[in-house]
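Tutorial handout. Part one gives the primary structure; part two gives the three-dimensional structure as tokens.
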Amino acid sequence: MKWSNIIPAVIVFLTAFLLPFIFSKRKKESANKIKNYSQDLRGIGIDFEKIEKDDERIHFIKKLSWGQKAEGIFRLKKRNIDYIFLMSQTSQYGVNYFLEYIVRNTFNLRDESLKNTRMKLKKDSLVGRETSDIIWKGDLYLSQKLNMDYELKHKWLNSSLKELKMNLKIKPEEKFGYTRIKTNFVPPSQDLISFIDSVAGHIKTGL
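Part two.
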């Protein structure tokens, strides 16, 4: 049998059977992620509302990058954090989930352009695993504010958060009037929401 005859048959098989199975599996996984995250938020007493992607209240959010999808959107009440986006990113390696905490804010006029800011975990030794400090690097103005907030450091270093291997990056969207606090997917806890909300408080006061 010639390969030219086999290849079209394989493509038909993938299209008719395998791809629908993959999409169904992903849809189920996403639904479980949203359900579990919602339950976790309620479990720690967070007042929120689950909203849809076409909700006019989030019209200011710019279009997502290719391969990204907002699986679940949660509007927080009485918090500096305005929304939590449960996001997925599709690549050749599969589907990766992460979180974006959305903060609506005004941007102060500065001579220098706004930069992304990242939180770095400082270990107590080269071989030790204990986190001894958190350091903010990136945007000069915001990183100085965060590094001088010793209560914020205390929240991280004296809670279960210091055991997390969490990447945290702050990305200002100056053109659209909001800022993203992006992290890898971490189940919510009171300590974590309190920490992110404190960071959002600094952003709310202007960048």
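Part three, for discussion. The radius of gyration is 21 Å. The first helix runs from residue 3 to 43.
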